[in-house]
Amino acid sequence: MALNKKDILDLASLSVEEIQLILDTAETMREISERPIKKVPTLRGKTVVLFFYEPSTRTKLSFDVAAKRLSADSLSLSAGMSSLTKGETLLDTARNLEAMHPDVVILRHGYSGAPQFLARRLKASVINAGDGTHAHPSQALLDMLTIRQHKGRLEGLKVAIVGDIAHSRVARSNCEGLTKMGASVTLAGPRTMIPHGIEQMGVEVAPSVDAAMEGADVVMMLRIQKERQATFLMATEREYARCFGLNEERVRLAKDDVVIMHPGPINRGVEISPEVADGPYSIILDQVTNGVAVRMALLFLVTGGGLNADSD
User: Residue 304: how many CA atoms within 13 Å on its side-chain side?
Assistant: First the structure.
């Protein structure tokens, strides 16, 4: 099966079979990162542009590493270093990018829908690296890969996602992807951070964090996204940690073999205690490792799955 898509913009537009293909391809890509020489010539001659309007560490770096491990040429562009500071519009930026004939453009933008806007105007493939509060497909895919590696499956699992759901594109993409793959998703957090009508995505909203934790196979903690809030929607961080933070006592409410996740960056002592973040149930660093593998898979698949490219 081939991934017959030019762009990766969200999880809603991917079928179960397409998600399965991406995850299976990422599994094979992990092996490349474990070799003494972590490089294959698969995408030699391809050009990947990393265009990040917003700050990023894990996503930007892992896309860059992914491109280099597949021997693509990667170019990095940030809003502060581009002509956007001189008043250039996203449309003009798109036209200029198109004139340079890149093969893949990876875009992170503060406005929801920006990657879709770019994808309609570029012949190059566009991969959404996070747009506003809308979607973060590669993060959800790496989360699903990590869960599948530790649990052997996605179908039938209870996944609790806790924190600032309203401002989290990670939460939305995971709700779309996990429910599509047969997992049960329960959300919890301050009522001011739970979007009205989120249940329409096929998820449940728990009355408390403790209720969401009960019997959970997987717990995914989210940070408070203050940069997207006009005002802080809780009285204090200490209050948030007490009411909604994940500590060792709350972990015991979940299944004995629960795994703990976090997309990063972590605010230790706020949404998650250091003891839990660094504890035996934490698979947070596995998420980082899988981030490279998933992004290698996406680059490989949107450029034709190796068709007309050199192979190892």
Answer: 11
